């Protein structure tokens, strides 16, 4: 809050008010009696109670006095005494636990409001109120009633009535809502199109109105029509997973263990008023289902029913969610505005972005999302805006969502001590034609950090393990010079059917891929090309091991029949010509980093020329170090482990691109 502003002053006033009320109630309980000062006290007897807009409304009759010898039932009521409408907040009502025939003492500073064209005055500011128990009979009744919760009638007032939306569309909508018949939601069949259309005519189009009308307990007998903007998976926090067969209801069953994949299918939906909500559906048995859900559901309208509010989150609590919402704001078409006639032309550019969002979930194991997959794409849908990597590197600001199509050249799992493998961050080094053809000053390869919260499908993981692939990164996060795949980022092997790519160069790569050469701007956790001259060898760290020439297994054993031969357990065969692999650290002198010590860790048989050199060095034992020094090396593809200034050293590792 702005210091000294109206909001901060109001917040302090509310805090003082709550403290005063709590202190007053505590004092009443401690004294165990009604405050003796009766000046200005309003004494009423409750005749009827109902709830409206979360406020408890009590129709009361004012009493001249409440004799200490009489119970509330026996209190004399004069027919000429005025009738009052007393308003209690939800907190005050929960404290009083009032029922009809109860006598309430309302202490100052209560206020009386006289409404035009209304005969019954309204009593407000009733925070300092106390229920009077004047006899053993009434105390016994209180103990009996305290065991059962009283059901209070709720007067539901729609937003259309509140804002007096009296145009034709709202009249039709109100009539259809009044005549709505509750029905179970199922996935629509082709033969049920007529029934489906009639059912949709009775749905609401405001998420906020449903929340206001139904409250946190959720809604079962009404539906809300929304547009699915995004489909993605989130790591499941609850230990429940669902089983589905065709169009049969989904039944949630406890998970005995949390073995992956334990992810929850989620929808980011938007209603006709522009309000967003995240709907968390059933857990998926396979992460490969996410691609088909994206293709089938994104951009389509659907009806929600049987939802309950899991959380009301704000921008400060869910930066990732609101960064995705901001990428979809403002709406591409005019949205409805509460309190205004829908016939008038409404601007969408000046609308403030949403400041809160409801997280919804299903109430039970039944299907609660009805998607009309045969319907055309909604005009409210905003497909991902695809950029090339050169455009993304020029985006100003932080926490901006971006989508792009790139070639994955190399992947590396970050090693952190004590962190399980499935919770480690992974780096994907990607490029596209715009980076490969860029002039000096723009990197030819960029790193994409994939956090553990980003759910990857098995298909993506297997594809990246097999070789270099074109991958579509949808709704990645850009900020502080980094591209990060976080929660709600989706990686796909196929380009979405709907995407906008105005001005982006999406042409495929032609020719070999080039990396940036090592220079003074090279940073740690990057890849580069290296050339130089060998100036030293670290013999103390050199080691080698034999591997199977068929499967590459590095754990060979001696053959039981012939101890002079090696045996591969995976192939179940004798290895007659093992492949020797090795690790060695060499020191290079590089013209591009003349002042730095460049240390390269060489793994396996990567470069033929260097491999021959190292084979002579390690195994033939017929070399002299002096014969190795001065040899030219390059170009080597390397991963940069660290770059330090004191001492001035660059540590690299030779890699193989996918």
Give the SSE map.
Blueprint: H1 6-31, E1 42-52, E2 55-62, E3 83-88, H2 90-96, E4 103-106, E5 111-113, E6 122-124, E7 129-131, H3 136-146, E8 153-155, H4 159-162, H5 168-178, H6 193-200, H7 207-214, E9 224-235, E10 240-243, E11 251-254, E12 263-270, E13 276-284, H8 289-297, E14 301-304, E15 307-314, H9 319-327, E16 356-362, E17 369-371, H10 389-392, E18 400-413, E19 426-431, H11 433-436, E20 446-450, H12 458-466, E21 470-479, E22 482-485, E23 490-492, E24 527-547, E25 557-558, E26 566-568, E27 573-575, E28 579-589, E29 597-603, H13 608-620, H14 625-628, E30 632-645, E31 648-654
Parallel strand pairs: 1-8, 3-6, 13-16, 20-22, 29-31
Antiparallel strand pairs: 1-2, 1-4, 2-3, 4-7, 5-6, 9-12, 9-14, 10-11, 12-13, 14-17, 15-16, 18-19, 18-21, 19-20, 21-22, 21-23, 24-28, 24-30, 25-26, 26-27, 28-29, 30-31
């Amino acid at each position: 809050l702005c210091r000294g502003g109206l909001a901060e002053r109001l917040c302090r006033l509310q805090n003082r008010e709550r403290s005063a009320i709590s202190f007053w109630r505590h004092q009443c309980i401690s004294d165990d009696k009604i405050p003796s000062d009766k000046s200005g006290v309003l004494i009423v007897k409750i005749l009827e109670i109902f709830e409206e807009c979360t406020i408890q409304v009590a129709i009361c009759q004012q009493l001249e006095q409440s004799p200490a010898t009489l119970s509330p039932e026996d209190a004399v009521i004069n027919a000429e005494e005025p009738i009052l409408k007393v308003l209690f907040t939800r907190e005050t009502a929960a404290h009083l636990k009032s029922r009809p025939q109860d006598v309430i003492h309302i202490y100052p500073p209560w206020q009386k409001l006289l409404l035009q064209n209304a005969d019954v005055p309204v009593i407000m500011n009733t925070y300092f109120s106390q229920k009077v128990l004047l006899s053993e009979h009434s105390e016994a009744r209180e103990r009996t009633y305290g065991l059962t919760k009283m059901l209070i009638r709720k007067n539901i007032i729609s937003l259309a009535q509140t804002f007096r939306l009296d145009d034709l569309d709202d009249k039709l909508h109100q009539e259809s809502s009044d005549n709505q018949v509750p029905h179970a939601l199922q996935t629509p069949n082709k033969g049920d199109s007529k029934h489906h259309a009639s059912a949709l005519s009775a749905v609401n189009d405001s998420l906020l109105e449903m929340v206001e009308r139904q409250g946190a307990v959720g809604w079962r007998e009404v539906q809300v029509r929304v547009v699915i903007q995004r489909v993605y998976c989130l790591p499941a926090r609850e230990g429940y997973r669902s089983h589905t067969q065709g169009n049969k209801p989904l039944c949630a069953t406890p998970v005995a263990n949390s073995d992956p994949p334990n992810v929850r299918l989620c929808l980011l939906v938007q209603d006709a008023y522009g309000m967003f909500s995240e709907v968390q559906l059933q857990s998926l048995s396979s992460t490969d289902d996410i691609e088909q859900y994206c293709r089938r559901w994104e951009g389509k309208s659907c009806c929600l029913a049987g939802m309950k509010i899991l959380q009301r989150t704000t921008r400060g609590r869910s930066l990732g969610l609101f960064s995705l919402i901001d990428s979809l704001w403002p709406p591409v078409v005019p949205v409805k505005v509460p309190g205004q006639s829908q016939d008038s032309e409404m601007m969408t550019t000046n609308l403030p972005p949403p400041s809160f969002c409801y997280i919804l979930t299903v109430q039970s194991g039944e299907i609660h999302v009805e998607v009309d997959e045969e319907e055309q794409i909604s005009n409210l849908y905003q497909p991902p805006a695809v950029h090339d990597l050169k455009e993304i590197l020029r985006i100003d600001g932080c926490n901006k969502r971006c989508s792009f199509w790139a070639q994955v050249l190399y992947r590396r799992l970050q090693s952190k001590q004590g962190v399980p493998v499935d919770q480690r961050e992974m780096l994907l080094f990607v490029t596209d034609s715009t980076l490969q053809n860029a002039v000096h000053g723009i990197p030819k390869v960029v790193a994409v950090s994939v956090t553990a919260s980003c759910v990857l499908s098995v298909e993506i993981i297997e594809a990246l393990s097999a070789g270099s692939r074109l991958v579509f990164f949808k709704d990645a996060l850009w900020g502080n010079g980094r591209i990060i795949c976080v929660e709600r980022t989706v990686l796909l092997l196929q380009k979405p059917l709907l995407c906008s790519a105005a001005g982006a160069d999406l042409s495929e790569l032609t020719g070999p891929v080039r990396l940036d050469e090592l220079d003074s701007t090279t940073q740690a956790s990057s890849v580069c090309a290296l050339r130089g001259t060998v100036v030293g060898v670290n013999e103390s760290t050199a080691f080698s091991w034999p591997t199977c020439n068929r499967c590459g297994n590095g754990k060979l054993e001696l053959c039981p029949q012939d101890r002079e031969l090696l045996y591969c357990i995976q192939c179940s065969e004798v290895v007659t010509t093992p492949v020797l692999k090795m690790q060695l650290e060499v020191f290079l002198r590089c013209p591009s980093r003349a002042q730095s010590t460049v240390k390269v860790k060489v793994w396996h048989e990567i470069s033929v020329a260097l491999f021959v050199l190292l084979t002579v060095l390690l195994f033939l034992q017929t070399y002299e170090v002096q014969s190795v020094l001065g040899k030219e090396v390059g170009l080597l593809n390397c991963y940069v482990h660290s770059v330090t200034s004191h001492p001035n050293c660059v540590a690299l590792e030779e890699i193989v691109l996918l």
